[in-house]
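seq:
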Amino acid sequence: MSKRKVQGMDLEVGTGNVYADLGYADADEMFVKAELVAEIAEIIKRKGLTQTQAAVLLRMPQPKLSNLLRGQFRGFSERRLMDCLLKLGRDVQIVVKATPRSRKDGRLSVVFG
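struct:
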């Protein structure tokens, strides 16, 4: 995060990853999971599914789905979340590519198309 002053107030500009800004050690993993869960929730909403219908489709107990949709996804692996997307009729593609020369380390991102 970086600090700047705007109209006499000190502001901290976030990194774009709230988990990193809050100091979580597994911030990148949490951010990816949050993006996947947000997409799962959006698809369920667009399809007009109840949580009970969605839970049957995703083969999980409805209370577990409820927790997931409320952001309690620590017990879910990224693979399990991708499987949910597959069951909701989405293709999941993993692309590995070289980083630009301007960066030493790679970056993990989720792109929805």
